[in-house]
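Anyone? Bumping this.
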Amino acid sequence: MKMQKSQPLFQKLDQWLEESQGFFNANCQAKRAEALLKLKKLGLPDKKMEKWRNTDLSEALKFDYKLWTKEFSPAQIQNDLFQCDVHDLDAFTINLYRGRYVYQDQAIFKMENGAIIGSMAAAIEKYPELVSQHFDKYTNSENKAFDLLNTALFLDGLFIYVPKNTKLEQPIQLINAVGREENTFVQNRNLIILEEGSELTLIHCDDSYDYKRSFTNSLSEFYIGKNAKLDHYKIQNINNNSFLINSDYFYQERDSRLNTNKMILNGGLIRNEVVNTINGEGAESDILGLYLADEKQHIDNQVFVEHAVPNCRSNELFKGIVDDYAHAVFNGHILVKPDAQKTLAYQNNNNIILTDKAKINTKPFLEIYADDVKCSHGATIGQLDENSLFYIRQRGIGIDNARMLLMYAFAAEVINHIKIESLRTRIDDMVKKRLRGELSICDQCVLQCSTPEYHFEIDMAKID
Amino acid sequence: MLLNIKDLHVSINGKEILNGVNLEVNKGEVHAIMGPNGTGKSTLAAAIAGKEAYEVTQGSISFNGKDILDMQPEVRAQEGIFLGFQYPVEIPGVSITNFMRTALNEIKKYHGQEPLTAAAFLKKMNEKQKLVEITSKLKNRSVNEGFSGGEKKKNEIFQMAMLEPQLAILDETDSGLDIDALKIVANGVNKLKTPDNATVVITHYQRLLDFIVPDFVHILYDGKIVMTGGKELALELEEKGYEWIKQRVKA
């Protein structure tokens, strides 16, 4: 499908490339130009494509977006910056401002233990060998338009390198906040490299300052080396006028561990693509997600897990509550290749649908070419359980609170997997607020929702 | 009179399960309702508690002189009716502590009372859990999640102790309990007895009534109470079996 020439976005691509090439070296420039050519050939997805059958981008793509290619001074944007305030969350925070990496002194730095943290654009200049070993190695760029778009036109992003047998004790938090200006187009490109035996916790937040429209196309590649461990959290909480395409590629070596947890709390249209390639024996992955959609929101999760080698385990659990006119899509695909004997692979998508106008498309799918494996998949769409509601009401708890309590209980299964306690408490708070319809976005930070639960009858605060 | 049921007819999906139940329960009394399986015992309990699918087609239920048939289940609970479930529901992610605190505060609100402070609530919790010999670990767990059958039933009695209802209906609370758990549950019920409240015990077996001694025993058969007597009726039933009832009803 060729891209519609009439799309304003299409008309801007060349201009954006021209404006942004100056940030990169010749080698990189060539790659970007090549990716753009491929993209033009491929075109942006439309509803006729199987993978996009249930997600219509035509509305999202029709606006006159602006890519922030101007230089900016750190001081100039200090006031604009997003203040994240998860209490007790001792994280090293990195901000992306309209897709650009914000820093005070150094765009990239090396810690005493050898870990490198910094701007993706800076990493390309300063650590070209490290970057070229991994950059764009785990994507499916050839046939994914948004991958190509990202490769062609990303401006910056986060780069992390964790050397062998090094554990970064402090979680790293990446905040990409959009807003302040109408029709911002943000493309960030992140590369996270975990060498053998290393450990990292990364929290990636997408937030909005306000209700201004934006389109984010974020792509992250994760290389998880032998025996390495990645704990990854994604918190997506953008305004209803914003669109977010997020692609995460996780490549796993032998005996590595991946835990990735998506909390999709709010957004006009959110599409997550998770690709998990398990390429070393003994590797394990847990891929979880929780989505809460209401009004006319559209939330789409695409999860592809590839078992290429024997003796690995993967576990997928996505749960969603869909209200009003909202639409949720889940596509889970597990591929077990012929050599991948003794694979354990599980996939589950459970949905609660609250109205007859809300819509859910779920498609669990197993593709298995090995004969000695344990795999299962399941998808459910249901309403709140009447017996459970009656039980709760019989204790004197009113219908509204009873419903909320059950929705919370449904969501808690995913929330409880969050290993960082302060983050879990905060997400817990946000989910509760979201369920009672209070949370969309705050002026500064929705994570500041630590106000006392003054009129929330279901007080789940710890009182011990 | 605390509970007054007159000529109660209840249908589920158009099928009549109860056809003319009469029952009067006064303060300070313990009633046992016995009967063979599928005869409407649990339906009676659910109808009193106000479960939606249970349609009352005829008759009345009043509690403390108020007609409760138009009341939502939570309002009946707030008025003081408690149902101990035969199959308590698991609510993962919600601790018993918070579940009970929410329930208690909603009930207090209904009666125009101030909510309990956290300290007062915890004190109450500690007291009541001793009553049903619940170890302190239980309270940090999610409501009924992963509980054994015995733990679930103990938890029902614990909730009853916390909410202090005027009328407790215990639906087959003895089913699935070993003798030790049965004693603990019965003990809890007995300790909660006051001259101001009443208990209706629904059971299939006489065994429970050795520990919770009823003032009245009713036998429910085919949607009606066919016999009422003292505690000795339960013994007689145990000895002669439900066949005896069936024959007497036919006769």
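Late reply, but here is one note on the structure posted above: Chain A is about 20% helix and 35% strand.
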